[in-house]
Amino acid sequence: MEFPDLGKHCSEKTCKQLDFLPLKCDACKQDFCKAHFTCAAHKCPFAFMKDVQVPVCPLCNNPVPVKKGEIPDVVVGEHIDRDCNCHPGKKEKIFTFRCSKEGCRKKEMMQVACDQCHGSFCIQHRHPLDHSCKHGGRPIGAAG
Q1: What is the C-alpha separation between 39 and 67, in angstroms, rounded?
Q2: Which of 128, 126, 132, 127 is nearest to 111 (CA)?
Q3: Which of 15, 44, 107, 138 is 20 to 30 A from 50 (CA-CA)?
Q4: Residue 113 is inside which H or E element, if any?
């Protein structure tokens, strides 16, 4: 043996293999060969410190903190009932801008305002001639 100080022995009791590129466990800080470096492979007593998972709410995609000893499903359920901003039964209205033209019941997703009277109109009645605009001076003619 020319290099007695080179490498380290695997800390697994049943292995003790001399490894020239040992891997250190993040949890217990011991050296292991490539076959035993995972926490599951060497039954690491400190694996619980590294196995921290934070559940995510399926509705709002926000992380839900879980204290030690709590069941994640129960905590996420409580979050959905109390703190969650997204409720599946509650739908937001998309078409909220109603046409101001008399007799028209159409609604638009975006506000289409008249430059002269500042009323909100649907696409069909957006031009001043289409909604009989009387404010702001003379209406612009059809030819321009």
Answers
A1: 22
A2: 126
A3: 15
A4: strand 112-113
Residue 142 identity: A
Burial of 3 (0-12, 13-18, 19+ CB in 10 A): exposed
Number of compact structural domains in the chain: 3
Q: Could you report the per-residue pLDDT of 67-114, keeping only the tens digit for each?
A: 877 888 899 989 888 888 776 655 667 778 899 898 999 988 888 898
Domain that holds residue 107: 94-135
Q: Domain of 108: which CATH number?
A: 4.10.1110.10
Same domain, 25 and 46: yes
Judgement on whether residues 101 and 130 belong to the same structural domain of the protein: yes
